[in-house]
Structures are given as structure tokens and as C-alpha cells.
Design a protein that fits this description.
Elements (H helix, E strand, L loop, with lengths): L20 E5 L5 E7 L5 E8 L5 E6 L4 E4 L14 E2 L28
Antiparallel strand pairs: 1-2, 2-3, 3-4, 4-5, 5-6
Length: 113
């Protein structure tokens, strides 16, 4: 069964963000998903899966299949051996822009730091 589409508000998704990414939140402020324009300009909806520590563990497509999985060490560093899908590191593009920037403890991840 496909998941519901995420509603998008008109205009920029939020101040200071690129216009090709939009985050969706629950009524209590929890980040539930994101919509992102792909290279063809089509919006792709993704939904977050969290563990008990509030780490982002999965990013799921609208049809329920997995877009990416994430893993972390006990101290919050990326465990890249446990990454799969669109954010799996590659030798050809080690500094590629991540598809999703929310990771450990559901905090925004900055690849430059």
C-alpha cells in the first residue's frame, strides 16, 4: 500500500533553505519526512524512520521501499559500513552532497565539519 503524499506549502519551504527541499513536521514538531526535487525537477517524498535514541535510521520512499539506511558509532560518528542506498559513500564521489542531512540524534549533519 503506498504511503500518502506529503503536502507542500507554496513558496520557499523555510527561510534560508534551497527551494528544492521541503521538510514536513508532525503537530508536536517531530520531523516526519521531506520532499525533494530530483534531477528531472519531480518532487520525491521520503519518510524518516528513527531508533529509540532519535537517530535517523532509514529514509523510506512513498511506495514503502527503502531509499537509504544509516548507522552510527556509540559516540555519534557515521558508521559508513552500515550506510546503504542514496547516501552510501562511494570512492568515485567521497564528497558528494548528501540526499538527506538529518542524521545522529535527528540533528542536521554538516559534511564540512
Amino acid at each position: 500500500m503506498p504511503l500518502l503524499s506529503l503536502p507542500r506549502a507554496p513558496g520557499p519551504p523555510f527561510v534560508g533553505s534551497p527551494s528544492d527541499v521541503d521538510s514536513q513536521y508532525s503537530a508536536t514538531g517531530e520531523r516526519r519526512g521531506q520532499s525533494k526535487k530530483n534531477a528531472a525537477g519531480v518532487w520525491e517524498d521520503s519518510f524518516y524512520g528513527y531508533n529509540a535514541h532519535s537517530d535517523v535510521k532509514t529514509l523510506t520512499k512513498q511506495d514503502g521501499t527503502t531509499r537509504a539506511t544509516y548507522g552510527y558509532t556509540a559516540y555519534g560518528k557515521d558508521d559508513q559500513a552500515r550506510f546503504t542506498g542514496v547516501d552510501k559513500p562511494t570512492v568515485a564521489e567521497p564528497d558528494a552532497e548528501p540526499y538527506d542531512v538529518y542524521r545522529y540524534n535527528a540533528k542536521r549533519w554538516d559534511p564540512a565539519s
